[in-house]
Amino acid sequence: MKRLIIFATVTGLAAVAMATGAFLKTFNDTYKVKPDSTLGKAKCMICHTKASGGAFNAFGKDVYAALKESGGKKVTAEILKKVEGKDSDGDGMKNGEEIKKDRNPGVKN
Ligand SMILES: [Ca+2]
Known about the structure:
mainly alpha; two-stranded antiparallel sheet; 5 helices; 2 strands; binds calcium ion
């Protein structure tokens, strides 16, 4: 039983890491994020509240809602474009503009 729990935990974590890695790659490819930029350093925290993942921040919630609405399982450039017009973190600047200015759209600046 203990082995089963460990196996499930490890494979579960791997699946989560793979999913976020794929989403992050889509984000980075869509917006041509440079590694030394604010967004490049934010990595998982573009969509999550912690560097290790965990809960979605305001932008992550909007991307997830758009993903669910699309009926797909992968975040695509089209899904990211759908939330560009929103101001997820409520700081007065739209997500698309924040991303262009290398600001985190999920964190009030
Ligand atoms: Ca904003």
